[in-house]
Specification:
single chain, 344 residues, alpha+beta, Alpha-lytic protease prodomain-like, Alpha-Beta Plaits, 2 domains, five-stranded mixed sheet, elongated
């Protein structure tokens, strides 16, 4: 085999992680807006002697730190996307950043809960007008940030044309390597990521802003009830409600990002779709199947197949459902014992 003929089988493992995505741009803008709002509140709090403004400014600083983690994660992912030390690219950096931010959210919620319980035990005098002003200001800033982010339920993996302004052919590609040892061979197949992905890093940024907006809404409700109805107990109570909701949201992010970091199996429907696709042809039977996430909504798979008539590499690749986001698949095939005895 000529050396140059191997080049068509050589590939990288960037899987689109080297491209700047719209989620990164939106997160950066929100981070800047949050930092500016934080500086304004802290400066105003010091200048006017307002403890409420100063406290809210420092509180916003905790979310600014979390957003900074998200921005750094995007930059790091792009900068190191082609680093060969990452076996499957830098896609898991998103989940690592999401996990770290979720931990920060839980700590923030615990502080909220502790402060609320303390105020139940030892109520403080509330400056309602000033506190309402701060809560409304925070809600406006968070509302703007949520509009910029556009909601975490949408697709965050943009096509290459939308992300970098270039004119690229956005088609699937594959490379196969056939390593034979007796009756055993392995095949590696690759395809470009599907556009419908989930980004833990972006989700964490959204949850931080949403948590801040929620606390502002609950605070406004409680402060208005305290000022006009004399129900001051609602202030610490709403703090507990907010802390509970934030912990619940954080738990979901911790769970989903930890699954990726620990290489847990992909969802049952993904694995079942692969199994059905492989076993739909001939007498192929999947004896071992491992599917795990290597980035936002993209998967790698290792499939062991027993068959009396193993298929060629391209045939196995073409059986894979393209909509599953499989970017790396390894097939290992074995001749079944009955076929071997028959051949003798």
């Amino acid at each position: 085999m000529h050396t140059e003929s191997i080049e068509r089988w050589v590939h990288d493992h960037t899987f689109g992680q080297d491209r700047k995505k719209s989620a990164e741009r939106r997160t950066l803008i929100v981070s800047i807006v949050t930092v500016l709002a934080m500086v304004v509140e802290i400066v105003a709090g010091i200048a006017y002697g307002s403890m409420a403004l100063l406290a809210d400014g420092l509180h916003m600083g905790s979310h600014a730190s979390a957003l900074a983690i998200s921005v750094f994660a995007y930059r790091y992912t792009r900068a190191n996307a082609r680093d060969a030390r990452f076996n499957f690219g830098t896609g898991k950096v998103s989940s690592l950043a999401g996990f770290a931010s979720a931990v920060m959210l839980v700590l923030f919620a615990l502080v909220m809960a502790w402060e609320s319980i303390t105020r139940f035990i030892s109520p403080l005098v509330i400056g309602f007008d000033q506190a309402i002003f701060v809560a409304v200001l925070g809600l406006i800033v968070n509302g703007i940030c949520l509009l910029i982010l556009g909601g975490h339920g949408h697709s965050h993996w943009q096509s290459s044309r939308e992300d970098d302004g270039g004119d690229h052919d956005n088609h699937d590609h594959k490379h196969s390597h056939d390593h034979r040892d007796g009756h055993d061979h392995k095949v590696h197949a690759h395809s470009t990521p599907s556009p419908d992905q989930q980004d833990h890093n972006f989700r964490s940024a959204y949850l931080h802003v949403l948590a801040d907006a929620l606390t502002s809404v609950l605070a406004i409700f409680a402060l208005l009830a305290g000022k006009y109805l004399g129900q001051q107990w609602l202030d610490p109570f709403m703090g507990l409600v907010g802390a509970t909701l934030v912990v619940r949201w954080s738990w979901g992010l911790l769970h989903s990002s930890a699954r990726v970091l620990l290489d847990l199996q992909a969802p049952d429907e993904v694995r079942e779709a692969i199994r059905k696709a492989i076993e739909s042809e001939g007498d192929n039977r999947v004896s071992d199947l491992h599917v795990w996430s290597v980035g936002p909504g993209i998967y790698a798979a290792e499939v062991a197949i027993v068959s009396s008539r193993p298929l060629d590499p391209d045939s196995y690749y073409n059986l894979l459902p393209k909509e599953l986001g499989l970017v790396h698949a390894t097939f290992e095939t074995h001749l079944c014992a009955a076929h071997i005895r028959g051949a003798r």
